[in-house]
Amino acid sequence: MLLLTFLLIQLKIIWIFTANDGSNFPKDMNLYVTFPPILERRESIPLGHLRPLGWQRRAESPILEDSLNMEPARFYHLYVQGNRSVVIRGMVPSLDVLWTDSYLSKTYGHLNVTVATRKQRLVDTLIMMSLEIFLEQYRHDDLYMNTIIPDEMKHETPLPSLINCGTFRDRLLEPVLWISAGDTASLLLAHSQNTLHCVLDGRKDFIIYDFSNQSPRDFDLIRQTNGDLYSRIDVDLVNAYKYKCLHNIPWYWATLREGDCLFIPAYIFHQVRAHGRTIALSIDMAPPDTRDDFIGNDCEKNPPIYVSLNKGQFQWRYEHGTRHLSKRTITIEDARAYLLLLLGRNDQLYKDIFREFFHQATYELAKQDLTLPTANDLWKQLNNDENNEEYITRSRLKSIPSNILQLLADILQKSARIHEYDKFEL
Ligand SMILES: *[C@@H]1O[C@H](CO)[C@@H](O)[C@H](O)[C@H]1NC(C)=O
Ligand SMILES: *[C@@H]1O[C@H](CO)[C@@H](O)[C@H](O)[C@H]1NC(C)=O
């Protein structure tokens, strides 16, 4: 998930090199869980007090499903422009090679991945370890993997063709791979990006809240620098006295199993619970300006339902455990395109969003080259509107002069190629 990998650069990264002694009990791997829950009413206390999220109100109905053969334009009009979640079943194949623990460990065990552990139920801390060590621990310990998928694994991972053309193709940000064991609950959250979440193995239950008629402020929110919103509600033990609002907000549900995908538009609040051994892929996409119509000249008539993930042009890739821009050559127009992607569907690009992007893209270079201009230096040049230091409008972004964009493009390109310089110098 985006947040966790974003947090990564702000925390001191903790490296774990040894397996724990395995003294914890194995987790419960049962896949047969009743969901949505059957509510238990008691006279004296509010419904769902000290129960998991979802026990505070009866679910309205399952999330809408649509056909596997849906055309990209339909997907755009009904769900992206329409701001609606949708389930598509059977969209990704059962994995060509069975991703058993021993296969993953043998083939990809040396790769470094990002792993999250839950602290005091409310905060996820990120640690980095090899996939092999993760696989030795995850069936016992309180941790799950969520990593931008390493390039080496992409040829075995599916990318639905639905989002690999037209307006969608240029907005692919990053594919995140999840592996967990036992019951693992996410926090209640809303992403700043559109997400297509696909289950490759196991089971995931989703709760989606519908806020169309009220404000989510009562959720006790924390805003991340990348724009994502997290709620402080303890999703395993909800305080229904404090969060009375949960009795009033309608929610919808979906259970995804192997092959199923769920589209969740940006800023829709949701919570996820995985059961058993679960492997899932979530693909983040920058929300388009929904006033624009779908452009799909390059969309094939009857494409294969999926291709391999390495066919997708994602903005980010993962190398040496950190994010890098995928492009190796970054032109002025690429630099402008990155800025426009940061806008999503908004008309203003805020400084903190730019700063976060710049940190992510130049993290390693900035450590090596102390003379590198900072995000603030660049912002001052990009934003020459003195009345307005906090944001740049869409129309201004489209007309930033080339010489200023060139500076940004040069820095981004140098950062993207940082490991090529390593090799060159060797
Ligand atoms: C993983 O990280 C360790 C520690 O920094 C490093 O020595 C190793 O080369 C990395 N492995 C890969 C495949 O990048
Ligand atoms: C979609 O719905 C959510 C929740 O109601 C809202 O916060 C968000 O602004 C909406 N997005 C669009 C594109 O209308």
From TrEMBL:
Domain JmjC: 138-302
GO molecular function, one term: oxidoreductase activity
Any Pfam family the entry gives: Cupin_8
Cell location: Nucleus
Keyword Oxidoreductase: yes
SUPFAM superfamilies given in the database record: Clavaminate synthase-like
UniProt keyword list: Iron, Metal-binding, Nucleus, Oxidoreductase, Signal
Gene3D superfamilies assigned to the protein according to its UniProt record, in alphabetical order: Cupin
Signal peptide: 1-22
Cofactor requirement: Fe(2+)
One GO cellular component, as annotated: nucleus
Principal cellular location given in the protein's record: nucleus
Superkingdom, taxonomy of origin: Eukaryota
PROSITE patterns: JMJC
Name by which UniProt lists this protein: JmjC domain-containing protein
Organism (species): Rotaria sordida
